[in-house]
Here is the input.
Amino acid sequence: MCLLHELLPMDMTVGCILLIVAAVCAVVQVLRFIFADADFTLLWAASFGLKPESTLRGRVVWITGASSGIGEELAYQLAQIGAQLVLSARRENELERVKRECLGRSRLHEEDILVLPLDLLDRKSHEAKTAAVFQHFGKIDVLINNGGRSQRSLCLETDVEVYEALMELNFLGTVSITKTVLPYMVKRGTGTVTSVSSVVGIAGAPLATGYSASKHALQGFFNSLRVELAEYPGITISTILPGPVQSQIVQNAFTESLHKSVWQAGDQQHKMATSRCVRLILCGLANRVKEMWIGQQPFLLFFYVWQYTPTLAWFMTGILGKKRIQNFKAGLDADSAYFTKPKAP
Here is the structure.
């Protein structure tokens, strides 16, 4: 560098140094992105922001869809933190199982966990269910709308009743619960309402036209609601958009008809671990992140491409979508198209 200083004018030497520093920073950012499993805002919150252990301890958290998958893991990690829980889903026996596991993993007591069976389709019951939570705990600090079902079927083969069921469950069920809880939060001037959406809430994916539509609807609803509540800075409205995560969402997905189940879910091990997804969610909630993109590559890339370069996104989706449909028709897990060579039907 001393020799470079002698040969080049001072301004050229400084320019070279700045260029090298910029190149190094660019390489570092590219490497970070390659190995990232969430958007940079959420990763920053997870590394340097407030910790869930300090911000969520003692809070009353209502989780819908708490009997399996992301909802179940949320219950376990929140219990370990010390949050008080309301566990809701249709299957009461499964909720009781989750409650016992929560008690075994934490220092919570029986009265710290309320098992509250809930059917998102029975919207007339939601006010009474909300009242039961307030009767037990006196407040709701965080509502996590996690209940819902996915879809695995081609549009041309799918009954309209399936689309109706997806919108009733994923969209209107979530809106209904939110509307019963929100007035209490507005009255207190504080609270968090979050909804587990999906990467297909901002992108498009074959085999999930109805599911994607319901998640797009949630995006529009919560984005608009967030603006409506701008005069209540203590209330946080956030959405969570995971890519593929290890859960039972595929096993429970709708197919082309209401009463036909997925015949084979396929291996789910290539997907993100549920524990990692939930940890990121809790970090986002602790730091009031408004939108959380969670996914391993190439799904994280999808978020950024769809957000910033939609023309390129259509090109990429067309290529990968064909592989997804090929695997589906061959009887394989549709998502495995992103990780394995698709088989011919």
User: Anything to note?
Assistant: The first helix runs from residue 2 to 7. The beta strands are 60-64, 84-88, 113-115, 142-145, 191-196, 235-242, 291-294. Residues 37 and 297 are 7 Å apart (CA to CA).
